[in-house]
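note to self: the first set is below, dont mix up w the second
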Amino acid sequence: MRPEDFLTADQQKTVVDAVRSAEKGTSGEIRIHIESECDTDPIKRAEEIFGKLGMHRTVLRNGVLIYVACNTKVFAIIGDKGINEVVPEDFWEDVIRIMSVRFREGLFTEGLSEAVAASGEKLKAFFPYNSDDINEQPDEISFGK
C-alpha cells in the first residue's frame, strides 16, 4: 500500500484536525509521518525522519513525531531534546498503548487521533500554550517511501 492511501482524504483531515486541536493546549509541535516500509528499528527510523523534517528547529525543542510504517505494521513516538530532558522515561507508554489497541482493531484514524490528543494533554503540563505561540511545524501529515 502506498503511504498516501493508508488514510482516506477525510481520515487525513480528521487526524490533521486532531493535531490542530491538541496544539491549542500546548506549545508542543506534533507531527505525523507515514511511510510504507520500515526495515530497521522504528525508533531509529523515526529519529531519521525527525531530522529530515527539521523538527529540531523549534525554539523550545518540543517537537513530537508519531511515525507509522503502514505495510510493516510498526510505529514509534519520539520527542525532541527539550521534551526528553523534562519528562519521565515512560512518558509515551500510555500513548503507545492507545495506538496499539486501536491499530489492532483496524481503527487507524481513531488510533492516530486519540494518540495526538493524548500527546497534547500530556505535553500541556510541561509545555503549556502561550498566547504568543506560533505554529513552528506544519500540521499536515507527511508521507515517505
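second set (the one i keep forgetting abt)
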Amino acid sequence: MRSTKIVTSFIQDKQKILILKRSKNVKTMKGLWAGISGIIEKNENPLSRAKIEIYEETGISEDKIRLVKNADVLKINSPQYENHEWEIFPFLFEAKKPEIKLNWENSEYAWITIDELKNYETVPSLEKVLLNLL
C-alpha cells in the first residue's frame, strides 16, 4: 500500500478552533473544510512542516503560536485512491487573536467549537484527528 505523510494542524484561541475551507484551486478535497495541512517532503521534520504550512496558509508566524499538543500518527485509508493511505501527523497550537490572511489554497475560514464541527462538510476523518488532540 502506498502512503503519503501529511501534517494537519489546528489553531486554538480560547475555546474556538480554526478550520479552513479548501479552495477550488487545490488538487484534492475542493470545497471541504479542513485543518491546516500539507505534505511532508522526504525526511522533513513534521513539526517544522506544520509551522511552515500555518504561515503559508494563514499568515500566522511561528512567534505567534505555541505548540499545545501533538498526537500519535493516524493512518487513514484514502477515499480517493485505491491502495493508498495517509499518515497524518496531528498538531494543536494556540494563538491569541491572530490575524488570518488566507493564501490561494483556502477560500474561507471559521472559528468554531468542537460541537459545531458536525455542521461543516469536512475532509475525511477530520473530527477523529481533532479529537485525538483534545
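remember for set 2: The chain has a mean pLDDT of 93.
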